[in-house]
Amino acid sequence: MSDWTSGYVAEVDYTHDFFHEMTPAVLALTATSKGQKHGLNQSELSYCELGCGQGFTSNLLAAANPHIQFHAMDFNPAHIAGARELAAEGGLNNIQFYERSFADFEEEGGLPKQFDVIALHGVMSWVSQENQQLIVDFIGRRLKSGGIVYVSYNSLSAWAAIMPLRRILLDRAAQGAGPLEERIGEALNFAKTLEGAGAQYFKSNPMASAGLKSAGKMPANYLAHEMFNADWTPFHFADLAGDLSEAKLNFLGPTSLMDHIDDICLTAEQIAVLDGEIDPVRRESLRDVLVNEQFRSDLFVKGGRRHTERGAIGAWFETPLALVKRFGGGPIKLTWRQGEIALDQAQYGPILQALRSGPATVRSLLDQGAFGQMTWAEISRLLTILVGSGTLSPCLPLDGVADRLAGCQAFNLAVCKRAEDSETLRFLASPVTGGGLELDRIEQLFLLAYSEGKTEPSQWADLVWSILSAQGQHLQHEGQVLERPEENLALLQARATAFAARRLPLCRSLGLIPAASGQQAALGIAAQEAREEAAA
Asked: Phi and psi at residue 76, in whole multiples of 5°?
C-alpha cells in the first residue's frame, strides 16, 4: 500500500498562520513598485492556493475579497475539514477547498480553466522533486496569460550551513518511537549533546549553533513541518527560476517591498558588485549571497507587461493606502538589513497624520499637500519603505468598502468566538486592506465584548476574566502566573484601557468593527474622490 503522505509530515497539524504577502492588494503593489501591470484591479478574479495547510490565509482573504473566487487544496483531510468548517462559520460563499494531491488536483471538476493568481507558501521547499514538477506543470496549464504566481521558499545561501544539522535531527527522530513532538524534542537534545561535546561542525558553523538554539524555541507543530519532512530543499534562486521558466514564468520581484530599495539592504560596495551584473536571475542569486538570504517570497509573471514611465506613476497615484500601526505624531524608527533607516519626520509625519483620519489614495495625499516639496522619487521611496515596514498597507478600492464590510465582520465574529476556547487564530479580516490584522486572544475577546454592546473597557475585562476563570486559566505578568482573581482582573482592566486607546481606533478604521458615523462619512468622501479621480 502506498503512503498517501509522500514523506510529508501528516501526524502533526500545521499552524494556523496568515501570510500577509499573499494579500491581493500587496501583490498588486509589488508589481506596481516594479513598474509592471498586474491585472488585479479587475472586478472578478480567480485565485488558487496550492498546499494551503489549515486554509486560514485563503479563508481570511476570501472574507476580505468577496470579488475573488478562491480555490485552495491540500492533501491532509484534517486540514481541509477544518478549513471548510471555518468557512461555513464565517458565511463564506466564494471559496472552495479540495482534499487532493498535486498528482490528481486537475481531475477536480469544479476548477476554473485558468487562474489569475496561483500562490504557494513554502510548499516547493517541502515536497519531492516529483511534486515540484507536478506543480510547475499545473502552473503552466492553469495560469492565465498575464497571471502572477506567488512562491515562497527556503534560500540556499543561509540554509547551506544548516543542512547537516537538519539531517542529524531527522535521522535521530526516525530512530525513536512515540509521538513526533516527543521525538523532535529528543532529537534537539541529542544535537545539543553533540554541540556540548565540542563537535567541530558547530565550531566551524556558527549559524548551525544559532539555528539549533532558534529551533529549541519553536513550537513543535511548526518545527515538524519546517525541518522533519522527508524532502527539504533550500533553493539557489537561479535553479527555482529555471524550473518556473518551464511554465513560461519570468521573475517580477520580491514581495518584501523593503528589498526593492538597494541602499537600505546593501553597502555601496555590494551595490557596485550587483550593478556589474545585468542578467536579472544571476543578479538575484548574487544578492542572496550578499545578504545571506534565508527565506524568499517572490512574484513571477506569465507574460509581463511594463508600464510606461507615466503609466507607472499613474498606477501609484491610484493606489489607496491605510495606516495599520498607531501613529501618535512622534518620531518613528525603522530598521532593515543595514540597520536603522534614516527618515525625516518632516516628510513622513504629514503623510501618517493625514492617514489617521482614514485611507486615501496617493493622488489624494498629493492633493492634500501631504508630500510637501518632495520629488516623485523621494515620495515613491518613502511610501515603499512605509509599506514595506508594515506602517502602511495598500488597500482595495475605497468605493467597495461597504460591500465588503458585512462579510468581514461575520468572519471576524466567527474567529473571535473561537477565541473563547483557543488562541490558535490570531488575525482578523479587513474590508479596507483586503488582508489581515493581527490581534491576540485577549484582544479578540475585547472585540467580542464590544460587539455584544459592552462599551466600557471594564466590561471587556469582566467578560474575559469570566471566560478564563471558568477554564481554570490565569494570566502571566513579568514571568509570574497571577493566582489571585483580583490580580488577573486588574491586569485585564489595564490591557482593556490601553486597547481602547491604542488599538480600537485602528480596528474601527480598518473595518474590523463598525465605524463611527464620522468615520463612515470620511470613507464615503474618500470613495467619492476615488471615483472622481478615475473619471478624470
From this structure: -90, 115
Locate all alpha helices (DSSP H) within 90-219, ordered by sequence.
129-142, 156-159, 163-175, 180-196, 200-204, 206-215
Q: What is the rounded distance in angstroms from the CA atom of residue 535 to the CA atom of residue 527?
A: 12
pLDDT in tens, 272-331: 999 999 999 999 999 999 999 999 999 999 998 999 999 999 999 999 999 999 998 999
CA–CA separation, 146 vs 303, rounded Å? 5
Cell of 204: 566551524
Rounded-to-integer distance, Cα 421 and Cα 373, Å:
52
pTM above 0.70, yes or no: yes
Q: Any residues with CB less than 8 A from the CB of 50 and at least 6 apart, and which?
A: 73, 102, 105, 118, 119, 120, 123, 135, 138
**Cα–Cα dist 427/415, whole Å:** 8
What distance, in Å, lies between the first and last C-alpha atoms of the chain?
65
3-state SS, one letter per residue, for 315-374: HHHCCEEEECCCCCCCCCCCEECCEECCCCHHHHHHHHHHHCCCCEEHHHHHHCCCCCCC
| DSSP labels, 297-315 | EEEEESS--BPPHHHHHHH
Q: What is the DSSP letter of 69?
A: E
Beta bridge partners of 339: 336
CA separation, residue 283 to residues 159, 249, 491 (Å): 19, 17, 52
How many angstroms separate the Cα of 442 from the Cα of each of 303, 437, 439, 445, 463?
46, 14, 8, 5, 10
CB-CB contact of 169 with 188 (8 Å): yes
Q: Nine-digit cell at 506?
A: 485602528
For residue range 40-80, list pLDDT tens digits in order: 988 899 999 999 999 999 999 999 999 999 999 999 999 99
